[in-house]
Amino acid sequence: MSASDCSLSNSTMRYGYLTPCSSPSEQIEDPISSQKSSPTIRKIDSLQYCNKDDLVSDICQSLRISGGCIIKNLVDKGILESLEAEIRPYLNRVEKADAQREEFVPSSTRMVTGLLSKSKTYALNIAGNSIWQKVGENFLTTTMRNYWHGDKARTSTSLPQLSTTVTFSVRPGTKAQSLHRDDDIYHTYHPAAREHHNGRDTMVCLFVAGTKTRKENGATRIIPGSHLWDYSQPPPSSDDASIECAELDPGDAFMMLGGCFHGAGANTTPDEERLVYAAFSTRGYLRQEENQYLANDVEKIKELPISIQRYAGYGVSKPFMGWVDMEDPVRTMNPGATDELDDDFW
């Protein structure tokens, strides 16, 4: 059962509270609203939602307050089996990560990137997951209004784009990663804030567990609320009491704003692999961390839905960013398609 289904026919559960699906406008007290001084990472069960928009709204609310959110049962077992079958051969060919990057990615961690053309299941169900896409749109959509060209005041909206695709296989003996922010690659430097406001973020991160993820095998550590700190403030020590671990069952997801301090934990188990399928989004007019055009086989990209082609950066970010011969690249890639193509660069 996926997040689009409803296992409770007449009610939906939010943060442990049951409210009628038939009355979406009914207001209930949000138990995280009173915890601004010491936020925690919330767990939300996607199967308890009748309406995807309600699920997206609650995920976004959790991200605004704590910077992170665990979503139970986001990905079905069958999809996990397909991911394993398609990506495992690539993992088996990777002996270890680059030892020159030991400080950031331990060499005992195996990584596979360029996943859009290596695994169609990943492209459609991880990078292309509809809940993840809507959450990204909430935080990373940029609209510029009333900019003038001659006597016309125009409005343009740039939608988010995929920045990075990666599968991590964290093996026994892997040391903990240093606490860091992911959005520093965009020279993001924001001041401290009492509460989150849209426009602050340049990255949203998704991690889907392929195997059981727990503290002992290296679950991601996160500092809740650190997305609101001044960017010059360093992270606490690795044994700080504020650190939480994103422990997941297979198919669960952890979403996080790129401004949160976090880091992979140490895998201290004798024989457990921590397998994670990850995707990262950024604003449509910023450079992608992973070069999607060289990392992927373009013929494989052409086999994907045009919406995912656009999300991968093969479409124009309005206004006018990324054209080829003054055409939207997806038109060049899909000469026979008409319904999903847009000639308006504004």
TrEMBL record:
SUPFAM superfamilies: Clavaminate synthase-like
Any one GO molecular function term: metal ion binding
Cytoplasm listed as a keyword: no
Cofactor: Fe cation
Pfam families: PhyH (PF05721)
Keyword match Zinc: no
UniProt keywords, alphabetically: Dioxygenase, Iron, Metal-binding, Oxidoreductase
Family to which the UniProt record says this protein belongs: Belongs to the PhyH family.
Subunit structure: Homodimer.
Name of the protein in question: Fe2OG dioxygenase domain-containing protein
Organism of derivation: Exophiala bonariae
Lineage: Eukaryota, Fungi, Dikarya, Ascomycota, Pezizomycotina
